[in-house]
Amino acid sequence: MSEFYIVSARHTRRDAPYISFWGPNDCGYRWPLSWAGKYSREQVESHLGYYNNGESTFAVPCAVVDAMGVAPMPRTVDNDAGPVVPNTAENRQALIDASSFPTGKPIEFEWFSRKKGRLGCDIYNCVGCGRFVSDAQRFSGDCANCGTDNRP
Predict the structure, then answer these.
(1) Are residues 129 and 94 in the same domain?
(2) pLDDT above 70 as % of the chain
(3) 145 within a domain of the structure (yes/no)
(4) Predicted model pTM
(5) Per-residue pLDDT, 113
(6) Sequence-separated (6 or more) residues with CB below 8 Å from residue 142
(7) β-bridge mates for residue 18, sequence order
(8) Cα distances (Å, whole numbers) of residue 108 to 89, 99, 143
């Protein structure tokens, strides 16, 4: 029986040191693989739109992910639990390449969630707090809620 980790592309932030994975029983997000959930092929295939939608989640075989695991840097994870997968461009691409199921959309780790607003303008999520900011607000200054600079 094949087992898979569910990668959370949405919850892997730009400044995060490690890639986020779903916890066991669809519960929360984890950096350490020892805390991540393992999902059976049957479970993933029965709900592909949930576990493998390509926009925010995708399934990768445990063997592939386990081979990428390293010990975490001291004091970045509770009790230095590991292994973890470093959040690098090479690791993100390797996970995308190893994805085992087809997705409706190309898999991307996006730093801003692009959505079309009511008037057709682009709307983004603030990197710091996740609130919506318009394209104009991105360039005019920092987020009014948290003060994060969202300029590209």
Answers:
(1) no
(2) 89
(3) yes
(4) 0.70
(5) 45
(6) 148, 149, 150
(7) 86
(8) 11, 12, 24
End-to-end CA distance of the chain: 44
* 103 domain residue, yes or no: no
Name the percent of the chain lying above pLDDT 90: 41
Report the number of distinct structural domains present in the chain.
2
Each residue's pLDDT tens digit, 12-36: 877 789 999 999 999 999 999 999 9
Q: Which residue has the tokens 């939608």?
A: 53
Range of the domain at 121: 112-152
Pairwise CA distance, residues 135 & 116, whole Å:
10
